[in-house]
Amino acid sequence: ADLREKMQAVIEKGGHPIYVLATLGTTDSFGIDDLAGIKKVTEEIEDAYGLPPVYIHADTAMGGMYSFFNEYDFSGNPLHLEDHVLETLARYKKHFQHLHLADSLVFDFHKLGQTPYITSLFLVKNREALKAVDLDPDETPYVGNRGFGSYHTSYTLECSRMGSSIPIYASLLAFGIEGYQEILANYIRVNLAFRKKLLQAFPNAAVTNDVSPVTTFRFYPGNVRYHEEISGAITEEEVRNINKFNEKIAETLGRYRTHTYFGSTKKQTYVYPADSRLPVPLYVQKFYSVSPYTTVETIDQFIAFLKAHVEPSDVAAG
Ligand SMILES: *Cc1c(COP(=O)(O)O)cnc(C)c1O
After folding, report:
1. CATH of domain 2-179
2. pLDDT digits over 2-28, tens only?
3. CB 108 near ligand 1, within 6 Å
4. With a threshold of 0.85, does the pTM exceed it?
5. Which residue lies with its CA nearest to atom 6 of ligand 1?
6. How far is CA 258 from CA 254, 263, 305, 312, in A?
7. What are the sequence ranges of the domains in the chain?
């Protein structure tokens, strides 16, 4: 509804909605936009105002890998995945089965796909569309003028960034669809186990995102107040104090990062405290593991690490 409203507002001011950027799997909390719903809205708007098709880019950099399950037989379950893992994957399929509706997609194999950091795949449905971002050599004099090799300046989206597809191709051949399904299902299995053990070990912790390959969580100096935070039944000062508490923990954990590295972010989501006119960001810790060797059996050592570095000083002092 909000997207429709915003596009109508643009049109009524004489503007033209050019494109919509949907994110399917945000980096920190794995939030997933409703691509089919977005497509429906853009088509309604096109019809109502007689506009050419509105371009849709789906940023599937992180989440797109889960389209490996679009063809999975969920009832036969040939990989014998556990029910709770299967449930999450089925929820994803509801979204990722619509990826074909996007005009372009991106897959960061370097995130969940076991390849080196430089390997991303950009897919465009109609290659003519790519000409819209093509650069004239005159616009890139630093590489375009007096280039001695055959160097097309618009070779990749980022101009001088190499198009490194070989590791992606090699990995696709090595793992196959089934191999990727095993790897991707394991991230979910590991995160489900981590969440469970975290909440058992820390009565003062809350998990702040849906089940996904990433777990974001937050510690409280006393009782868990997450529900009050997201429902606005808390003051701004209280939220900011809990943020500070988490910042201190993140700093402590960071000192031991050569042993185990937990990420953190100062803006996982916004909350709307009762006495605040502006939204306040939540500061959270982040568990993100992409090694196939990180299995459910290894979770206890991460919990022990948190126990060793979070509880004694911070929680007692808090
Ligand atoms: C990581 C990420 C990006 C950035 O991709 P890079 O290949 O690291 O430049 C874009 N969008 C999302 C959702 C991501 O998770």
Report:
1. 3.40.640.10
2. 999 999 999 999 999 999 999 999 988
3. yes
4. yes
5. 108
6. 8, 13, 12, 20
7. 2-179, 186-317
